[in-house]
Design a protein that fits this description.
Layout (H helix, E strand, L loop, with lengths): L1 E6 L8 H12 L3 E6 L6 H10 L2 E6 L4 H7 L2 E2 L1 H6 L4 E5 L2 E5 L2 H11 L8 E5 L3 H11 L5 E5 L3 H11 L4 E4 L11 E4 L22 E4 L8 H8 L4 E4 L1 H16 L6 H11 L4
Parallel strand pairs: 1-2, 1-3, 4-6, 7-8, 7-10, 8-9, 10-11, 11-12
Antiparallel strand pairs: 3-5, 5-6
Helix pairs in contact: 1-9, 5-6, 5-9
The structure holds NADPH dihydro-nicotinamide-adenine-dinucleotide phosphate.
NADPH dihydro-nicotinamide-adenine-dinucleotide phosphate binds next to helix 5, helix 6 and helix 9.
């Protein structure tokens, strides 16, 4: 039985073991998938120990995505551009790193019939999650990706890294000057029930609002967007399942079906199952 796990700290609430167990059952793959919570200083030693114990791959979540990248012998373009790895594969004595967050986001948007081609996208946040989705968003040929962050210099530095005329940075006060087709909240603000300082004038009835955070109820940000005209608000549960499906595909070369797994997780979140 091939062994996988997810590293994170904290990790108790992680849904990854449940998601991968459902994918494995559905595709009849004989795998085990557990979770591990190392201290920050012990992360690399724990990965090495897992490889020695026969581990085939691992997911990596906060705060280890940058350390995971440093351990890799080979990175995909999307992992290198993110500066963060959420999927490790161990083969032939090498460590391979990928970042599947962006594919998870783009596929979730598509599953809601949100097309990104020629659209103006506002990306809020400049942390690992925001970095991870820029290249996959660019691959959809948007008109522009505008990055906004509480610490504006980080947004400017992130935009500059891409050196692409389609990517720029603004401050939150400047969001009053224009409207956006899609707004993606890649900040952790909703986890502390706070709202980024977005100007409501930038939302129209056609603006799609996405929050990477998910929960039993709509996040504070998505509630706020609904109150300010947005008619389509989407939380990050589909992105979570989508990034897991892409990791599963990388490891097992089988694409799992996502909608049933997503429905089951949604029910669990809402206490129905
Ligand atoms: P980081 O800690 O790397 O970055 C946090 C970002 O949020 C920074 O840009 C920070 O701004 C900003 N921020 C925090 N609080 C506020 C606030 N009150 N107002 C405005 N901006 C704020 O986190 P990650 O990038 O790794 O993750 C971001 C979120 O995305 C997390 O909540 C995570 O759970 C979620 N996520 C969801 C995934 C999914 O599959 N659904 C996958 C990956 C992440 P500043 O730079 O100024 O501090």
């Amino acid at each position: 039985m091939d062994k996988y796990l997810v590293f994170g700290n904290p990790i108790a609430q992680s849904k990854s073991p449940l998601i991968h167990q459902m994918f494995a059952e559905q595709t009849q793959q004989d795998i085990s998938y557990s979770k591990k919570q190392p201290e920050e200083v012990d992360f690399k030693a724990e990965v090495s120990a897992f490889i020695i114990a026969g581990g085939k791959g691992a997911n990596v979540t906060a705060p280890f995505k940058e350390q995971a990248m440093q351990m890799c012998d080979q990175l995909t373009d999307r992992a290198a551009s993110a500066g963060a790895v959420n999927t490790l594969s161990f083969a032939d004595g090498n460590i391979y790193g990928d970042n599947t967050d962006g594919v998870g986001l783009v596929n979730d948007l598509k599953s809601h019939n949100v097309q990104l081609t020629n659209k103006t996208i506002l990306l809020m946040g400049a942390g690992g999650a925001a970095r991870g989705v820029i290249l996959p968003l660019l691959a959809e040929y948007p008109k522009q990706i505008i990055i906004v962050n509480r610490t504006t210099e980080k947004a400017e530095q992130l935009a500059a890294r891409f050196n692409d005329e389609k990517i720029c940075a603004i401050s939150y006060s400047e969001t009053a000057k224009t409207t956006f087709d899609v707004i993606i909240n890649a900040t952790s603000a909703s986890l502390s029930a706070s709202l980024p300082d977005l100007n409501p004038a930038c939302i129209t009835t056609n603006t799609v609002c996405y929050d990477m955070v998910y929960g039993a109820e709509l996040s504070p940000f998505l509630k706020w967007c609904s109150q300010h005209k947005s008619q389509l608000v989407i939380d990050g549960l589909g992105m979570l399942v989508g990034q897991a499906a892409e990791s599963f595909f990388i490891w097992r070369k089988v694409k799992p079906q996502q909608s049933q797994v997503l429905a089951k997780l949604r029910n669990k979140l809402q206490g129905i199952d």
